[in-house]
Amino acid sequence: MATPLALFKGHVQTRPQLVPRLNPRKVSIVAQSRGLRMESDNAGPVVLITGCSHGGIGHALAREFAENGCRVVATSRSRSKMADLEQDPRMFVHELDVRSEQSVNNVMSNVMDKFGQVDVLVNNAGIQCVGPIAEIPISAMQNTFDTNVFGTVRMTQAVVPHMVSKKKGKIVNVGSISVMAPSPWAGVYTATKAAIHALTDSLRLELDPFGIDVIDVVPGGIKSNLANSAVDVFKKMPELKLYKAYEEGMIERLFFFQRRKPTPAETFAKDIVAVVLKKNPPAWFSSGRYSTFMAIMYHMPIWFKDSLQRKALMKKG
After folding, report:
1. Do 13 and 228 form a contact (C-beta atoms < 8 A)?
2. Which amino acids are annotated catalytic?
3. Most buried of 54, 183, 186, 309 (most Cβ within 10 A)?
4. Which InterPro entries is this protein grouped with (predicted)?
């Protein structure tokens, strides 16, 4: 992950030239083996976005990419949560569960049949997981990692062979500013986002020889329904034993940014789309409320950060 100090430099870290580009002809057989047919770009770029449920970042990104002349493939686990997007002729709406390899392959097959290409992949699908690490069911942790981390990997592995065959493409991974200052009750979610940032840094180096840009997007406090969904999951978990008195602080952690004038998802989407559609996009970009504050927190002494976290989130009900 890029250094947090980049937040003070216009929230952008430019992408360095790494090694000479490789001839994709030597690796195009990989794409052919997966049945990915190639077509010339005769319209706007095709952008495949995961996690496009109404009220979230992905939904706003889908609309903004479409406004910028892109052909958008909007996906979500629940098609009904994208009903308004389905009415937009610029959208190709598809149900997708990033936890399922079969679902991922099905979407890729249908997208290639319709458009013959994927120019931009936005790995945005993600879920929250709140609670004390000592008591969160392992199954809930696994589901969070399977969605946030392995879902990103599945989508990436599905689209890379095609991008390699074209010697171009962009992969956008959506992380979180929370990794700058991990807090109690959000350890599992923050761990998944830390993994995303690390994977993105490695992927950027690995795909550079093939002309594929990999962009690490770090949202600050953005208005979304993510916390509301997480509350529903939290309430279905087994009753806490060791931390029952701290449940109020756990709920507060979920809504910490949402209750403090978060950046509208539409504003965030405009910032991100403008960056992604650049000819030479940056390797790392952050936008949203509290981005700078969290970067400052990253550099604070541990005792100071712990003190703030205890006061804000370790309250007993």
Report:
1. no
2. 189, 193
3. 186
4. NAD(P)-bd_dom_sf (IPR036291), Sc_DH/Rdtase_CS (IPR020904), SDR_fam (IPR002347)
DSSP conformation letters of 200-269: HHHHHHHHGGGTEEEEEEEE-BB--SHHHHHHHHHHHSPPPSSSGGGHHHHHHHHTTTTTS-PBPHHHHH
The tally of CA atoms less than 13 A away on the side-chain side of residue 193 is 25
Mean per-residue pLDDT of the chain: 85
Provide the CB-side half-sphere exposure for 36 (13 A, CA): 24
For the chain, the farthest-separated pair of C-alpha atoms sits apart, in whole angstroms, at 63
Q: For 245-273, how does the pLDDT look when each residue is reduced to its tens digit (9 = 90+)? A: 888 878 877 776 666 678 899 999 999 99
Type and span of the H or E element at 48? strand 46-49
CATH class of segment(s) 4-313: alpha beta
Q: Which of 300, 299, 291 is nearest to 7 (CA)?
A: 291
Residue appearing with tokens 């249908």: 110
Compute the Cα dihedral for 157, 120, 44, 28 and give only its sign. negative
Nearest Cα to 211, choosing from 119, 102, 85, 292? 119
Phi, psi for 173 (deg, rounded to 5): -105, 125
SS (H, E, C) 82-115: HHHHHCCCCEEEEECCCCCHHHHHHHHHHHHHHH
Stated as kind and residue range, the H or E segment containing 190 is: helix 187-207
